[in-house]
């Protein structure tokens, strides 16, 4: 059975309350009956996301929420529109309230009173926010209605067929997602706000179609090997206006500088360390390209996102014959295509046309 990874990929301001909304809040996941730590966002005590103006309607987050065996999951989200003051203590108070609500919801579920944790969780979160508004926020900040989503084990395992890409004409960012949590709120002036949290579920174990035989290990200056070559290739694709890095598998000063430049551009911590957040930003864009690449006819000599898509699907269907997902249709990929064609009893010619794509994607 494949394992799964759940990422919070981003936040979209669909309807803003003001010309410029400054927002903060929490997101939390319950795995089966086990609440995970509450994540208060954005990082930093008094930090807020500024959303609403043209070019700032979405924020890419790439926050890991869960990685492990496929099981029933519940994800909750809260949001507050900031007006003034220091929100550090408010973030702490919300986190405590969300944690208590999750624990209480699990207890209700254990008693057999409901079919899903999400239903009592929303009620408990709403009750907690009524008390927070009275005791903590006062008239300073406007709390949105909390929300939650239940993701069954079957939904997780079918996530690849549900993946979409969200774009807006007024924002340059692209968000990949399989599921959403939408929160709404009304401020004291009667203005309605609407925000969408985007979640992306990825299967990561054998037979998942997501493995490239390389993975995403934490890298830094001094690292070497195939994962560094993968990183260098992705950096070249994501920073095309700078001279291309040599794809040599050596994480030296040039790769370190390019990793820091990429981190600066996507507004994450600039430390030259390529960990889950940096990998998430790099590979999210790669998977989005593959999702929109379609199913063109491919053969030896082809290259690009459609070839990467093909290679991932071949890894899914031939778990005993994994190959690197590098976007190059060379002799190894040709051999895998022919092996797949032979196994499904179609013409063995190494050409990936409608019939081969059909068997790969069914």
Give a brief rundown of this model.
With 362 residues, the chain is α+β, with helices and mostly antiparallel strands.
What does this 3D model show about the protein?
β12 (179-186) and β13 (192-203) form a beta hairpin. The two termini are 19 Å apart. The protein has helices at residues 88-110, 118-137, 153-157, 226-238, 253-265, 276-291, 305-317, 331-343, 354-361; strands spanning 3-15, 21-31, 34-35, 39-41, 49-51, 58-69, 73-81, 142-143, 147-151, 164-168, 171-177, 179-186, 192-203. α1 packs antiparallel against α2 and α4 packs across α6. It is globular, with a radius of gyration of 22 Å. With 362 residues, it is α+β, with helices and mostly antiparallel strands.
How are the SSEs placed, and which strands pair?
Elements: E1 3-15, E2 21-31, E3 34-35, E4 39-41, E5 49-51, E6 58-69, E7 73-81, H1 88-110, H2 118-137, E8 142-143, E9 147-151, H3 153-157, E10 164-168, E11 171-177, E12 179-186, E13 192-203, H4 226-238, H5 253-265, H6 276-291, H7 305-317, H8 331-343, H9 354-361
Antiparallel strand pairs: 1-6, 1-13, 2-3, 2-4, 2-5, 2-7, 7-8, 7-9, 10-11, 12-13
Helix pairs in contact: 1-2, 4-6, 6-7
């Amino acid at each position: 059975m494949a394992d799964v990874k759940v990422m919070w990929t981003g936040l979209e301001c669909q309807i803003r309350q003001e010309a410029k909304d400054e927002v903060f809040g929490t997101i939390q996941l319950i795995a089966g009956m086990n609440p995970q730590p509450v994540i208060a966002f954005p990082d930093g005590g008094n930090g807020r996301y500024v959303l609403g103006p043209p070019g700032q309607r979405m924020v890419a987050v790439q926050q890991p929420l869960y990685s492990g065996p496929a099981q029933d999951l519940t994800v909750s989200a809260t949001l507050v529109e900031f007006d003034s003051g220091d929100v550090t203590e408010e973030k702490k108070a919300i986190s405590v309230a969300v944690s208590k609500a999750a624990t209480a919801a699990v207890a209700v579920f254990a008693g057999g009173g409901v079919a899903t944790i999400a239903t009592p969780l929303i009620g408990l979160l709403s009750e907690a926010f009524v008390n927070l508004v009275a005791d903590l926020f006062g008239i300073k900040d406007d709390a949105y209605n909390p929300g939650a989503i239940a993701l069954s084990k079957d939904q997780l395992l079918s996530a690849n067929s549900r993946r979409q890409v969200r774009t807006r004409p007024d924002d340059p960012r692209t968000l990949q997602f399989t599921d959403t949590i939408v929160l709404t709120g009304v401020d004291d002036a009667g203005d309605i706000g609407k925000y969408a949290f985007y979640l992306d579920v990825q299967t990561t174990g054998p037979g998942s179609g997501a493995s490239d035989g390389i993975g995403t290990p934490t890298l830094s200056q001094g690292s070497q090997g195939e994962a560094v070559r993968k990183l260098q290739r992705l950096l070249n694709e994501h920073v095309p206006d700078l001279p291309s890095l040599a794809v040599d598998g050596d994480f030296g000063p040039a790769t370190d500088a390019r990793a820091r430049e990429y981190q600066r551009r996507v507004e994450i911590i600039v430390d030259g360390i390529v960990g889950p957040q940096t990998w998430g930003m790099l590979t999210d864009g790669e998977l989005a390209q593959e999702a929109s690449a379609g199913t063109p006819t491919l053969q030896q000599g082809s290259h690009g996102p459609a070839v990467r898509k093909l290679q991932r699907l071949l890894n899914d269907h031939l778990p005993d014959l994994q190959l690197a997902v590098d976007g190059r249709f060379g002799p190894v990929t040709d051999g895998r295509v022919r092996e797949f064609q032979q196994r499904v009893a179609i013409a063995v010619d190494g050409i990936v046309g409608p019939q081969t794509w059909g068997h790969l994607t069914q």
